[in-house]
Amino acid sequence: MSATSSLDVTAAISDPPKSGSLHRKIGWQGAFWVASGVPALVLFSIGAIAATVGKPAWLAWMLSITFGFIQAFTYAEIAGMFPHKSGGASVYGAIAWVRYSKFIAPISVWCNWLAWTPVLAIGSGLAAGYILLAMFPADAVINTWQITLLDLSFLKSDLSLRIDATFILGAAVLLAVFGIQHGGILRSARVTMVLGLAALIPLMLIGIVPILTGDISAANFLPIAPLAFDEAGNVINGEWNIEGWKLMAGGMFIAAWSTYAFETSVCYTREFRNPKKDTFKAIFYSGLLCLAVFTLVPLAFQADLGLGQLVTPAVLDAAGNEVSPAVYDGMLAPDIYSGMGVATALAAMVGGSQQLGNIIIIIMLVLALLLSIMTSMAGSSRTLYQGAVDGWLPKYLSHANEHGSPTRAMWTDLCFNLVLLLMSDYVFVLAVSNVCYVMFNFLNLNAGWIHRLDRPNWERPYKAPLILIVLGTILSFVNVALMGLGANIWGEGTLWSGVVCAALILPVFLYRHYVQDKGVFPKAMVEDMHMGDESGVKKRAGILPFVAIAVAVLIVVYMQQL
């Protein structure tokens, strides 16, 4: 496929959107604080992973953050190549893929947004749940009333759209964050620095205190065997057969949504005062912070709670159908899986039995969730903004206000997440969005070597060692293997729901490219693609990008068959 036939760049070039632009107002420290909400993502799935994987849960987290740290070096390199662009690694990766197919490139941008934006709904929902449970008993009317709007049980059992107190309070949280972000990146960075200092303290205390006090029992970690149950529903040590590996793969799959996420620190390249120096520092130091939190907090969490045992057996009817599920304690408790009980459990680890201490820790954990919401809205809105500037998404998203905030993209984020906030199962939302996140990571890790081949002489303020580019590429295939094997343990429709969501970009892109832009890309995007006869820049990868995609698809299909 020639460059001309695939991209139509010989045709007339459309004008770039005439609107406000982003402002260069922060250094790497500002991006670090904006991205400091990423460690709080451990609160989103620590309970679900522990309740699903069992004793190897801590190992799943440790391996996952190690993978994420290795991959970050590829992202740091490609981000430094485009210091004038915002939107994060997906935008820089799309520039590599667009030379080979105009229909693959927007999937990178779209999947990155679909992966990041649910943080707004999940984070605000958890924050609302923490507040309500801290103020009222679990069986209080305010915590139990709801109005069901739509039954979605065909996707996952007991999934629905509903209005309840969590939705109302969560919506208020989202609107508050929107108001802060409306003032631009500098104000957002300052607010997140304050929130970061307040929110990261409890996470670090939770991770460090049990180690210092020696409150770590080997029985809660060993033997490293997957979770299993006997016929009576009692907890037993499983075997490393296909079912055991499926649980481990599912745990690492869902952990990746949190542990890989510090790549968002390169989302603000267009707003760095010195992007050549700040880009690498932002992602490197953000990675170090995440390496500590995602290793220590799951260890401490598991050390304190333990795996758990059967409390109340399941109740069956005469036909053998389950009337009410079995109830367990420890990491297998229902409120730990849903995430709503995680704050209380973590608070007890630090605050002990003192009610005031528990409340203070819960408040600080709510601040941590607010920080993660700030991080997500800042990053995901800029992905939408840059996607519109580059010609992937509708033009209306390419507007920025007088403070340099992409307000129309932020409104889109907000409205979309109000719908997600209606969902009764946040773990399912997280799992579906992570299918998109794995697809984004695959495309962008492979963009590293594509850029190396196509732009060998381009200036790279940071050039990753070749071994890290190779390891990042290998991990891109490991990630899709984990997705293929483990995604559906979070609900039978998880994998296909994610694939369908990813495919929704195609009609959106077709509308933008062929209806709004008449089949041509904006001038600035064509210049970024360097489709002309620039010395040293050309398509050198041949069919290798398509081979990589084909291999990834085969891996997913094979793992699904297992």
UniProtKB/TrEMBL annotation:
Gene Ontology cellular component list: plasma membrane
Keywords per UniProt: Cell membrane, Membrane, Transmembrane, Transmembrane helix
GO MF entry, a single one: transmembrane transporter activity
Predominant cellular place of this UniProt entry's protein: membrane
Residue intervals passing through the bilayer: 31-52, 58-76, 109-133, 159-180, 192-212, 244-262, 282-301, 336-352, 359-378, 426-445, 466-489, 495-515, 541-559
InterPro entries membership: AA/rel_permease1, APC_superfamily
Topological category with respect to the lipid bilayer: Multi-pass membrane protein
Localization, UniProt: Cell membrane
Name listed for the protein in its UniProt record: Amino acid/polyamine/organocation transporter, APC superfamily
Protein source organism: Methylobacillus flagellatus (strain ATCC 51484 / DSM 6875 / VKM B-1610 / KT)
